[in-house]
Structure to design on (433 residues):
């Protein structure tokens, strides 16, 4: 099947009117197009939402591994993060000043370091009522201290410290204020941010049990693709090779390699059967043309097609296969925007499943302009957000076009039949570098 409906929509390059929201695209006289589906979607093609759910369920979480903290950023916790120590591990000063005991004035006592009690230094002797010692932020509080008098609130004359007496516990971080040993700090399936790594370090961890980033391999298919220079002699530049790996990386994968195989069925068979990746992504060859070998190769390998087409435009020829003894395979259509649609429809939820994360979430927004719809399929339309809560549709959104998606910050999910101005729609945020 073709995405000629989307091509026709893109030619308009202007906001739709309410009267034409669901109008079919005109056919240009004298041009030959493959037959366009006008009736209900094929019963074997799941809806866009159902396809996303299937892709997420199809993934088996990767086995956990232990990583040092400096390599764990962006990974998913495989088990709850529980504190290995009290936080703080001891009573500490929250300010620079003096640790005091009881009401003032206070007599300064000697400390092992002439500068007073310092963070990471010795605790110092116990102090009794009417005594004080200089203390720095983060230093361990001496026994007997009842509060910390801030440096700007006290005056020292000789060995005598005066100032307004602080209430009991002022500017002290008591042991266990944040958590006690064994407290769950983060649940399993949490994505490790810089702050989460800092918390893990404070709680005593050197390594963490995480789900590794899924390893992805990209196979670019098509003899018509050029890898350098200008298009010529009916051949076009490969746009999918340079962008598919980075898209997968932004979606949480570790992209191992991008291989360009042309339209060689044997090379495709060997590449799939020998892959050691956790996910194989192919571009092109998902239809039934004379050099579209992907489906035949999958059949030869004994793969099970979980999804063979999705009721979405652009990108409905996308597929998801389960190999007998290897990784899942996602087949992306050869048109660039259609491939992006496939990445967000199938690859994003599948990668979340491999990493044991919840399925990707969307969020609502209000359209600033109407958007034409397909009679039966969901449309994914590039949009920008002029301000929070709003979405403005972009032009140049045909399946072979990248100009719209390159400027977009999200894709709007347009239901069958289209959406009017001020309609509420769902947005898929696009990953940013």
């Amino acid at each position: 099947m073709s995405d000629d409906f989307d091509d026709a929509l893109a030619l308009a390059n202007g906001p739709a009117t309410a009267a034409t929201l669901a109008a079919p695209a005109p056919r240009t006289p004298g041009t030959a197009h493959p037959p366009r589906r006008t009736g209900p979607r094929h019963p074997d093609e799941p809806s866009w939402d159902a396809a996303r759910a299937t892709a997420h369920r199809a993934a088996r979480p990767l086995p956990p591994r232990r990583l040092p903290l400096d390599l764990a950023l962006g990974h998913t916790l495989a088990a709850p993060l529980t504190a290995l120590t009290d936080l703080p591990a001891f009573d500490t000063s929250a300010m620079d000043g003096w640790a005091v005991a009881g009401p003032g004035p206070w007599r300064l006592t000697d400390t092992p370091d002439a500068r007073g009690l310092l963070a990471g230094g010795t605790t110092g002797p116990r102090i009794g009522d009417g005594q004080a010692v200089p203390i720095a932020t983060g230093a361990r509080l001496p026994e007997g201290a009842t509060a910390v008098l801030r440096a700007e609130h006290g005056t020292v004359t000789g060995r005598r410290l005066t100032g307004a007496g602080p209430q009991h516990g002022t500017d002290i971080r008591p042991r266990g204020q944040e958590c006690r040993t064994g407290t769950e700090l983060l649940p399993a399936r949490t994505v490790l941010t810089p702050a989460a790594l800092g918390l893990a370090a404070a709680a005593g961890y050197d390594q963490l049990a995480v789900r590794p980033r899924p390893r992805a391999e990209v196979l670019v298919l098509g003899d018509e693709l050029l890898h350098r220079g200008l298009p010529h002699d009916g051949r076009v530049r490969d746009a999918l090779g340079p962008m598919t790996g980075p898209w997968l990386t932004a979606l949480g994968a570790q992209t191992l390699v991008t291989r360009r195989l042309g339209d060689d069925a044997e090379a495709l068979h060997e590449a799939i059967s020998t892959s050691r990746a956790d996910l194989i992504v192919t571009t092109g060859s998902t239809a039934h043309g004379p050099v579209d070998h992907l489906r035949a190769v999958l059949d030869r390998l004994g793969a099970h097609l979980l999804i063979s087409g999705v009721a979405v435009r652009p990108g409905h020829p996308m597929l998801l296969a389960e190999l007998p003894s290897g990784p899942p395979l996602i087949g992306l259509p050869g048109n660039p925007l259609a491939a992006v649609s496939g990445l967000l429809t199938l690859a994003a939820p599948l990668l979340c499943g491999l990493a044991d994360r919840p399925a990707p979430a969307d969020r609502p927004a209000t359209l600033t302009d109407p958007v034409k719809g397909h009679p039966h399929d969901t449309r994914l339309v590039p949009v920008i957000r002029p301000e929070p809560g709003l979405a403005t549709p972009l032009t140049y959104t045909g399946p072979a076009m990248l100009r719209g998606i390159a400027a977009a910050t999200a894709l709007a999910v347009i239901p069958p039949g289209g959406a009017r101005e001020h309609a509420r729609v769902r947005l898929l945020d696009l990953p940013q570098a």
